[in-house]
Give the backbone structure.
Amino acid sequence: MQNRKTLLTEQEIPDKWYNIVADMPNKPLPPLHPGTREPIGPEALAPLFPMELIKQEVSTDKWIPIPDAVRDIYTMWRPTPLYRAYALEKALDTPAKIYYKYEGVSPAGSHKPNTAVPQAYYNKMEGVKRITTETGAGQWGSALSFACQHFGIECEVYMVKVSYDGKPYRKMMMNTWGAKVYSSPTDHTQSGRQILAQDPNSPGSLGIAISEAVERAATDENTKYALGSVLNHVLMHQTIIGLEAVEQMKKVGDMPDVVVAPFGGGSNFAGISFPFLRLNFDEGRNIRFVASEPASCPKLTRGVFRYDFGDTVGMTPLLPMYTLGHNFVPAPIHAGGLRYHGAGVIVSQLLKDQLIEARAHHQLECFEAGVLFAKTEGIIPAPEASHALATVFAEAQAAKEEGKSRTILFNLCGHGHFDLQAYDDYFNNRLVKHEVTNEDIANSLATLDTPVI
Amino acid sequence: MQNRKTLLTEQEIPDKWYNIVADMPNKPLPPLHPGTREPIGPEALAPLFPMELIKQEVSTDKWIPIPDAVRDIYTMWRPTPLYRAYALEKALDTPAKIYYKYEGVSPAGSHKPNTAVPQAYYNKMEGVKRITTETGAGQWGSALSFACQHFGIECEVYMVKVSYDGKPYRKMMMNTWGAKVYSSPTDHTQSGRQILAQDPNSPGSLGIAISEAVERAATDENTKYALGSVLNHVLMHQTIIGLEAVEQMKKVGDMPDVVVAPFGGGSNFAGISFPFLRLNFDEGRNIRFVASEPASCPKLTRGVFRYDFGDTVGMTPLLPMYTLGHNFVPAPIHAGGLRYHGAGVIVSQLLKDQLIEARAHHQLECFEAGVLFAKTEGIIPAPEASHALATVFAEAQAAKEEGKSRTILFNLCGHGHFDLQAYDDYFNNRLVKHEVTNEDIANSLATLDTPVI
């Protein structure tokens, strides 16, 4: 019997996160104040985040220790298993070896608790009573609800209205962990009221929900804000995935030629990739990295690299990122976690420096891959994860055409238990290829008055 | 950092199932033909099951080898983790040590694939093209869909209409694994048409769905039937849970004083209990075993031990079981997997012989326990599993009152990702205590003309 899974013990859970900023040939450009457009320092973030997270956000230390209390909670589901996808390889008839790291074993069902737990922990240490956040499909809101519950912190989640109405189970999950969940836009923030005044039937968006959650934290001294992707400290927390995977690949006696992950704001991709990218830096390896994004929201493959806001209303600092413009409205694909106009600062710089690659897939291709995965490997992937699968399939096909093996590792970032409506829509031909024209992108970018780089 | 989980390697997955029949002081009474009411032999089951499963059903061998092909599929999620519930212990302020075996890591989210996989395997080996089954809440139907998909067998699931309408995600999950799912009663079996003629708006029941699935298999030579609980071979397949748990408890250096599991037809309870009960037989230990059933369907605590049918229409053999009568209609509690009028033959005999105990809990008590578990241990339990929790809480409280420690092990048989509506109903006071009167039970039993024992 071949080993399918490679496990680590709880004692082998890494005791530090990897901060790739230390190794980047070109460091990230500074964030700018949304009003003055001058570079801002850490103190500007103090109304929103606890000091320890701000320190991590701007740190250039290569390794940041993981507190014991955080590692202890990580043991609720970590280390996560590394799988060899024997059944999938056979179905694809490829000489490639395919591995996946499965993050869906967390209580919230995705990789998001990897950062929700330390964020809640540092807030708790600094006496914060309440954390606000936004959520789209609900993966991030669930993770933060779970983490806040553990530390006895109140959690308020602004959930995009279309998801609030369409994914009631996600809301119930957050409620079970004690969180308050609001359908965004609400009438209890100025940002929400501003949107509702323009359109009382607004379906909401991630950008609007961010505006609401940020405003709430900025105007209440007992309340802080938490973000589930994009920011440096969030990406760093997720490196726990790749740090474990490096050890697991060593145990197997193999090493990836290419690492693949879905791309929304970057934390999923960074989480599995950066610890392997470190091996390129430190050991001169030539591992490739491919970020898989939806063709309907192609910021990495078709966006521009310039300063832009993180939210719709324009409350956040300006960040140097690949973006489609913060007014870009992605088509309503089921992979809600990937419907975001911009990319995290670090990942954007790495793409600009050609240290990573990106590839876009339309959703029909992704669901086709997701269904084959479910039928072979058993696990039903989240729609976000199915984007990585589409890239994996392309890499496996390339290996077949070359007649050479290659080792592919991807991040199966979550299960699709709350996304089965998407599969049903796919089976019943209710999904379409959403095409984004060059004109759509040009029109969105034309609305920006933010600094170019 | 304390170890929270105890793991085994894939090589440590047991290579045989434990057949408790070999060790029972009083062997089970024989099944009777539904018409003649004479004892039947294995050949009577041949229209429904492949021969290898029939052999297992009547075997008195103590150990039955697990085929390598089955063990190989088990590695998709097994060995499952054994958790020490530190956070729950603290919240309960109990001197008791609480452990749980977590079976929700399977692709279908419960312990059910432990038997679905070998059942599909033996059918495949004997050339069966199609398997039919029934499902209530959907745990079993999902598991069989997953297993059949793996072996390329068609799967037809008769899903109780109220669940089909109320739990669409379960249906979509089965569809994703390629199964056909029908809302039972249907108009394409005689049993279904008979029910619909009486009541065109019948909400269906597990008993009716069993009648439909059995009829379909009995009348098509390429089709067999599979059952998710009750039968001897099903219970035996589930002993993989307890066999692993015995090894894990040994690794921890502890041993349970009491083993607890939810009780529907018996496979969940048998799975974790029998390998520890073997230690009582073989090593003279004094481990206690408590089956947790819903107060609204109290066959173990308030039923009678006599012959009864497994289904509503009366197509199955008569089995010697604790039963409320096959016409008993349990209240519509969310723990659909426990809404069954009877108990498996082996478990019934063990209860009669006082080798195991039973305890009933109403659903409000169970959800209260389930919510505290979710808030402390993170995992949201299936409503079925929350029944075990209610017993665990009572045992932990008893330990506290005695001022002595005791070691409690329970089977966390599945997660509640598809049952969040139940939690929402609980939080919003839409659930009630369903009381069953002695008159209700007497009335149901009065309809029986089956042999008394």
In short: The first strand of chain A starts at residue 5 and ends at 6. The CA atoms of residues 52 and 122 of chain A lie 7 Å apart. Chain A is about 40% helix and 15% strand. The interface with chain B takes residues 1-5, 7, 9-11, 68, 71-72, 75-77, 87, 105, 107, 109, 146, 149-150, 168-169, 172-173, 175-178, 371, 374-375, 377-380, 417-418, 420-421, 423-424, 427 of chain A (CB under 8 Å).
